[in-house]
Each structure stands twice: as structure tokens, then as C-alpha cells.
Design brief:
The complex is a heterodimer of chains A (424) and B (378). Chain A has 424 residues and is mainly α. Chain A contains 17 helices and no strands. In chain A, α4 crosses α15. The radius of gyration of chain A is 35 Å and the shape is flat. Helix content of chain B is 69%, strand content 1%. A two-stranded antiparallel sheet of chain B has the order 1-2. In chain B, α5 packs parallel to α8 and α7 packs across α8. The two termini of chain B are 30 Å apart. The chains are: A mainly alpha (424), B mainly alpha (378). Chains A and B meet through α3, α4, α6, α7 and α8 of A and α4, α5, α6, α7 and α8 of B.
Chain lengths: 424, 378
């Protein structure tokens, strides 16, 4: 027989809560985060050691050249020293944690630095050209490659970009949003096919879109290179992007809103027009604006289809037309410093346009479907209050009329009181 | 068609109780909510009790679309069909046009390293290899950058600046490629040569990093052999695709459940321990999907690559060495003076590129969709 379980119970001593009589007063709250002194010392020490060793390697041993190589080597050395220094006092998991923290911070910093570099470099180099007013008011027809920046500008590029993107938007926004509505309102096998093909086409490289228009419209139909052809290429590229993001936004519209509209007897079209589209308005706008930003920035479809010119051309149907990215591309291929400066100038203008579009998308699209701005909320509240007053007034007048008809004076007082006391 | 979204019995009791409900509604100001509720409840109970023995078959629901609705359906179906036609036309046209060149070259199209379609000697082996090498270099550089930035934004950054950082990263994805190209050409290229030289000096024994014509022991060796290389193009493309990958990864990381994060921390995990055991496994789908979406973009990038590389028509396996090529750069380079047959050959090359990006993107969207619940977004 095994021993009875009761004997085990006997052996277990009762748990005692240790009492520490010397504990002074209430317990102090320990800080779990925060920086300790030796963390700072380890960090500073390894930075100094890494920079010192790296500069010794560079200046005495000529192991590498260039600022970038120095930064990379110094960072690698820093990680090494830091690991060793922390390893003296901490356990292995803490060392790994600290190393990963440093790595994540430095790579994130590199990413943000790269963006800052791209933006400031473009604006910095472009400033030389942007400072001249003629850069915005002239085209390049009177300026040769050797002319200084006081002659010539990118008016033709700005006008071309504006015309091309307007045509592209005029085609792609109605078509794209109607298709997105079709995908969300009439689901079925056919819609699934359309959706799959559209999703596949978001993978279409922009140069292939340009090549398609080049081969069909320019070579096939014999139409010369023009702004319209370029708009078609940009449309082919933008359309799947707009449809896809609009489809996502429309699918986020709450189903109970639509059902409420149907239950009130609204037709399908009225529901889409008065419920679905207004609810998704901000998201749809964002989809269009972001598609526009992509379309404006694309060079390769325009390169193949618009042709190259230095003249301002306002007619999209005849003659070559240049957009800002294409003008940038053409400028920087020249070896002349003034042309390169113009290239940076037009890149800066392009960047500015994209920044403004992006900011616009953020302002409009910061809210989900159905979320209103304070102003919209106020308007709706006012509207509904006005309606309420109208109904109330109607009610009161009906009551008055009925009272006048029945001419029962004794209940008049209480009825008036009841109407007054009603919460609106 | 239209009855799918309306509840099946939405209008059933309405007609029967019309006479009783209407006075209740119009006089509802004078009724308490509980009384109304009571009325409704008893009504519905009575309905259910009445239904079996009343012997009336459920009313057949027929919906007849109004003219407005029919026009609406007709128009939106038409738009869908138009889009489908345009999009299929692109694919079909590529296929038909490219087929002419493909049928002449046969399978050699994928193995020939030259581009001279007019003499019949052409193939995409060199440009295909270049495209893949540039994209791989870009992805190898972009993925650590994207993972770290996404982790920084979702885990390490102070809460106050998270939204700003997210906006900055999204903005980076919207910067035009020609601007990245300029940056790579004028700022990165002069500064990166030292790094290229250093890598090839110390890691030249790895075949990919070897550079022909560069002797590390020659102190006067010119660094010009390192210009216009796959490596530099890869860095620029990496910067272009990293923001796209970052925003997808960040979204996946922030969805890691708070309860499991706190459980890991409560069990004594360090922050990295928590990330490794909770955040990364939850975000794995997003990480793979973001990487593949970035790869799709990297494969199709044209202008930035075109501005940086100096085109060669041979497979260039040394990524640090001058000269590279990609399919899109080839199209941008050659379309202008192309004969109709060369256009067909370029179409075939474009088709190959399209098929490649298509596979990568479809893979990405499947993986992203699997890793998420509910509606997917960009």
C-alpha cells in the first residue's frame, strides 16, 4: 500500500507571511523604467571608443574611404563595444534587448534621415532655379542649354502636368468610382472576375502601361505623340489603383446604414447616392488624391507617349507635351550645370505638388466613413432641431384647431401646459 | 437581386397591423417608452400565435426594380465591363504583340544575352538577371530597414510622435521616382563609392562582391569602376520600396493583441523578448506580404534605375561593378528608334516583367489577406 495522502498533508508546513519589523514606514515605489547612470556611461563610452577606433582605422591604416563607410564601420564597432560593456554587468537577454533597441533606433533613424535627405537635397539644389521668377513664367523655347538660369523655365512642364492629370482624372474618377460601386453593390461571379483583373493590373509596371499606349494609339492608330496619349497611359496606370482603394473604402461603409435606407423604402440608386457615397466621401477623396499623386509623379508612361518639347503646348491633341517629371528627366540628362539646376528646380516643384496633394489627402481622409467633422455634426444637429420645431409647431396648430372646433374650454389649460413641458 | 440586402421578413407584419400601429405612432408623444415596448411585444407574440392557424401562406416577395434602378445597374455594369475590357486588352495586347517576337526567338528568348532584334539575335537573359539582381539587392537592404522602422513606430517611438512618423513614411511612398533617381544620381553615387570599394576590398572573395579590373592593393586604383552599379541602383530602389513595406508591416505589428504583449512582459520578458515572442509571430504575414509587395514594385521600377545604371547587355553577376540593366530600363532605352519587330520584342520583355510582378503581387495579396481578418486595405 502506498502511504495515505493524509500523511503528506501533515508534512507540509503552513505558509508564513514573513514580517519585517525593520521596514521603515510604507513601501517605496520602485521605478522600473528610467535611465541608470551606468547605462549612460556605457553608451557614451562605446560611442567614443567606436568613433576613435574608426578614425584611427581610417586615418592610419587607410582601411576605408568616405564618410558613409566611416559611419557604417563606426556603428558596427559601437555595437560591439556596447555589447561587451553591458555584458560586464547584465545577463544575456538584457544585452540582446539593448542591442536590438539600438539597432531598431538606428535603422529607423536612417530611414527618416533618408527622407529628410531626399526632400532637403531636392529643395536645396532646386532653390537656385526656383529663386528666379522666370522659372515659373517661361518655357524653354528661348533658352538653350548654355543659357543662365535667368532665361527659360518649366511653364510648359507645369501646364503639361496640369492638362494631362486633368484628362486622366476626368476619365479615371467617374469610371473608377462607378466600377468600385459596381463591385460593392452587385456582387457576384462577374464582379469577382472584374475585381481579380483589376487587382492583377495594379501589378502592371508603369512602363508597360506606357508601352501599351505607345503600341496601340501611337503606332497602331497612327496618332502622333501628344498629351492625350500620355493621359491615356497615366489613366491605364491610375485606374486600377483608384478602383482598388475605392473598393476597400466602399466595403467599409456599415451595412446597417444601407439596410436602414432600404427599410425606409429607398431604391438601390437612392441608397448609393444618398447613403453609401456620402458616407464614404472622405475615403473616396483620399483614394483619388493618392492615385493623383502617383499619376503626377510617374515619368515612364509619359516618356513613351508624350514626346519631348521645349515649347509650351496647351493643346493635348496635337504636338508633343511635357510633364514635370519628364522635364526633370530631360534636364538632368544634360551635362550642363544650368540644365541640371533646372532639373532640380522642376523636381522641387513636382515634389511641392505631391506634398500639397498628400497633405490634402490627410486633411480630408483622416476620418473613417461616417465620422463627421465638428462643423458637419453641428449642421446635422441644427437641421434635426429645425425639423423637430417644425413638427412641434404643426402638432400645436393641429391641437389648437381641434380645440377650437370642440370648444371645450376646461381642458385648454392643461393641454397647453403639456405641450410646453415637452422636451424638444 | 435587391432583396438580398433587405431582411427577409422586414415588411411582413406591417400591413396587417397598419390600423393598430398608426394611432400608436402618431400619439407616441403621450406614451411612455415601456408602454410602446409592451404594445410591440404583445403584438409580435400574437402574430406568432396567429400565424400557424390562420392558414395564410407567406406573401411571395417580388421586387421590381424602378427605371432609375435599372439604369443605375446598367451603367455600373457597363463601367465594370469597360474597365474589364481595357485591363484585359492590355494583357491580351501584350500577349499578341509579344507573341510575334516570341515565336521567332522561341525559348532562346530567355537564354540569349544580347539585344539586337533586327538581326534576330535577342533575348532577355541579361536584362532579366539584371532586373532580379537589382530587385534582390533592394529587398535585402529594404527589409531590415522596413522591419526596424515599423518596429520603431509601433513599439519604441513615443506615443506623441507615432502619428507623425506614420505620415512621414506614407509620404515617402508618394515621392515620385524621378526625385529618388536624382537623389541617387547626384548625392548617393559620389558618396557610396568608398563603401563599394571597402566591400569589394574585404569581401571580394564572395563572388557577388568581386569586381573585375579592381586591384585592392593598388593605392591609385580609380573608384570609377564602382559607379553606375547594380548596388547603387538597388539602394535607391530600396529607399523607394521600404516605405511601402514599412506601412504594411507597421499595420500588422500594431494588431498584435495587447493581452499577450502584457502576458509576455509579466512573465519577465525584456522588450525584445516580448517582440520576438508576440509581435513578430503575429506580424509574420504582414512582414512577408509587405516584402513581396515591395519586391513587386522593385521589379517594375524604371526611371530611378535608368538614371543610375549604365546599360550592359550581358549578365553582370558582380553587383558592385559598373554596368547593369533591367527590363524596364531596356524598354525606356530602346522604344524610340525601334522597328515594329523590336517593339514586339520589347512587348515580350514587358510581358515577362508583367507576369513576374503579377505572381509576386498575387502572392503578396494572398499572404496579407490571410494574415488579416476583415476587409483589407492598401
Amino acid at each position: 500500500m502506498p502511504p495515505m495522502p493524509t500523511t503528506v498533508l501533515d508534512v507540509v508546513s503552513p505558509t508564513r507571511v514573513p514580517v519585517n519589523p525593520e521596514l521603515p514606514g510604507p513601501e517605496q515605489r520602485r521605478s522600473t523604467g528610467g535611465l541608470r547612470r551606468h547605462d549612460v556611461f556605457a553608451l557614451l563610452g562605446s560611442v567614443l571608443a567606436a568613433v576613435g577606433l574608426a578614425s584611427w582605422l581610417q586615418n592610419q591604416l587607410f582601411a576605408f574611404q568616405g564618410v558613409l563607410a566611416f559611419i557604417i564601420v563606426a556603428h558596427a564597432l559601437f555595437m560591439l563595444f556596447y555589447a561587451v560593456l553591458i555584458g560586464l554587468t547584465e545577463s544575456a537577454p538584457v544585452v540582446v534587448d539593448k542591442l536590438v533597441t539600438t539597432l531598431v533606433h538606428s535603422l529607423g533613424f536612417v530611414m527618416l534621415l533618408a527622407l529628410a535627405a531626399v526632400v532637403t537635397f531636392t529643395f536645396g539644389r532646386g532653390w537656385e532655379a526656383l529663386a528666379h521668377v522666370n522659372f515659373f513664367t517661361q518655357d524653354m523655347s528661348n533658352a538653350g542649354p548654355l543659357d543662365p538660369l535667368t532665361a527659360g523655365g518649366v511653364l510648359h512642364g507645369m501646364a503639361g502636368t496640369l492638362i494631362m492629370i486633368s484628362i486622366a482624372l476626368a476619365i479615371s474618377v467617374p469610371l473608377g468610382i462607378t466600377t468600385a460601386v459596381f463591385l460593392s453593390e452587385f456582387p457576384g461571379r462577374y464582379a469577382a472576375v472584374v475585381r481579380t483583373v483589376v487587382e492583377a493590373m495594379t501589378a502592371l509596371p508603369s512602363i508597360v502601361a506606357g508601352l501599351f499606349i505607345y503600341a496601340t494609339i501611337i503606332l497602331g492608330l497612327g496618332i502622333e505623340r501628344s498629351g492625350f496619349a500620355a493621359s491615356c497611359a497615366v489613366t491605364v496606370m491610375m485606374l486600377p489603383i483608384i478602383i482598388r482603394s475605392a473598393d476597400v473604402v466602399l466595403r467599409l461603409v456599415p451595412g446597417n446604414l444601407k439596410e436602414a435606407a432600404f427599410a425606409l423604402g429607398s431604391s438601390r440608386w437612392r441608397t448609393v447616392w444618398t447613403v453609401t457615397l456620402p458616407t464614404a466621401r472622405s475615403g473616396l477623396t483620399t483614394a483619388v488624391v493618392l492615385g493623383t499623386a502617383r499619376g503626377i509623379g510617374e515619368t515612364s508612361p509619359v516618356l513613351l507617349t508624350a514626346g519631348l518639347t521645349t515649347f509650351l503646348n496647351l493643346n493635348p491633341f496635337s504636338g508633343p507635351m511635357v510633364s514635370l517629371p519628364l522635364a526633370t528627366f530631360a534636364f538632368v540628362k544634360s551635362p550642363e550645370p544650368s540644365m541640371i539646376a533646372r532639373g532640380f528646380g522642376s523636381a522641387a516643384v513636382l515634389m511641392l505638388v505631391v506634398l500639397v496633394l498628400f497633405w490634402l489627402a490627410r486633411v480630408i481622409g483622416g476620418r473613417g466613413p461616417g465620422q463627421l467633422t465638428p462643423r458637419q455634426n453641428r449642421r446635422i444637429t441644427e437641421n434635426s432641431r429645425a425639423l423637430n420645431y417644425r413638427y412641434l409647431a404643426k402638432d400645436v396648430s393641429i391641437q389648437r384647431a381641434s380645440r377650437a372646433l370642440s370648444a371645450e374650454g376646461k381642458s385648454r389649460r392643461s393641454a397647453v401646459q403639456r405641450t410646453k413641458g415637452k422636451p424638444s | 437581386m435587391s432583396d438580398r440586402t433587405t431582411p427577409p421578413d422586414a415588411d411582413r407584419p406591417a400591413n396587417r397591423d397598419e390600423t393598430r400601429i398608426i394611432p400608436v405612432v402618431s400619439g407616441s408623444r403621450d406614451l411612455l417608452a415601456t408602454e410602446i415596448l409592451e404594445l410591440i411585444l404583445t403584438d409580435s407574440v400574437l402574430d406568432q400565435a396567429d400565424a400557424p392557424d390562420s392558414g395564410v401562406a407567406p406573401r411571395r416577395l417580388t421586387t421590381r426594380a424602378s427605371t432609375q434602378d435599372r439604369v443605375f445597374e446598367w451603367i455600373s455594369r457597363g463601367a465594370g465591363t469597360l474597365v474589364l475590357t481595357i485591363m484585359s486588352l492590355v494583357g491580351l495586347f501584350l500577349l499578341i504583340q509579344g507573341n510575334q517576337a516570341l515565336s521567332v526567338a522561341g525559348f532562346d528568348f530567355f537564354t540569349t544575352e544580347a539585344w539586337d532584334p533586327n538581326s534576330g539575335n535577342f533575348g532577355i537573359a541579361a536584362v532579366l538577371a539584371g532586373t532580379i539582381l537589382i530587385a534582390l539587392t533592394a529587398i535585402v537592404l529594404a527589409v531590415p530597414l522596413a522591419v526596424a522602422t515599423a518596429l520603431y513606430i509601433s513599439e519604441y517611438a513615443p506615443r506623441a510622435i507615432r502619428q507623425v512618423l506614420t505620415s512621414i513614411v506614407d509620404l515617402m511612398a508618394a515621392v515620385p521616382s524621378v526625385v529618388y533617381g536624382l537623389w541617387g544620381m547626384f548625392l548617393l553615387e559620389p558618396n557610396i563609392l568608398g563603401v563599394s570599394q571597402w566591400i569589394s576590398t574585404y569581401f571580394g572573395w564572395i563572388p557577388a562582391f568581386a569586381v573585375t579590373g579592381f586591384d585592392p592593393n593598388d593605392p591609385l586604383a580609380s573608384p570609377t569602376v564602382f559607379t553606375a552599379s547594380t548596388f547603387i541602383a538597388g539602394i535607391v530602389v530600396a529607399l523607394m520600396v521600404a516605405p511601402i513595406a514599412t506601412s504594411i508591416m507597421r499595420e500588422a505589428f500594431t494588431q498584435a493583441p495587447i493581452g499577450e504583449r502584457e502576458a509576455a512582459l509579466a512573465l519577465g520578458a525584456t522588450k525584445w523578448g516580448m517582440i520576438r515572442s508576440v509581435v513578430l509571430p503575429f506580424g509574420r504575414g504582414g512582414m512577408i506580404g509587405g516584402t513581396m509587395l515591395g519586391l513587386g514594385r522593385a521589379l517594375g521600377e524604371t526611371i530611378a534605375v535608368y538614371l543610375i545604371i549604365s546599360p550592359v547587355f550581358a549578365v553582370q553577376p558582380h553587383i558592385l561593378e559598373k554596368g547593369s540593366n533591367s527590363i524596364s530600363a531596356l524598354i525606356a532605352l530602346r522604344y524610340n528608334e525601334a522597328s515594329p519587330f523590336e517593339i514586339s520584342a520589347l512587348m515580350a520583355a514587358g510581358l515577362a516583367l508583367f507576369v513576374m510582378t503579377l505572381f509576386v503581387n498575387f502572392g503578396a495579396s494572398i499572404i496579407i489577406a490571410k494574415s488579416r481578418s476583415g476587409a483589407s486595405s492598401d
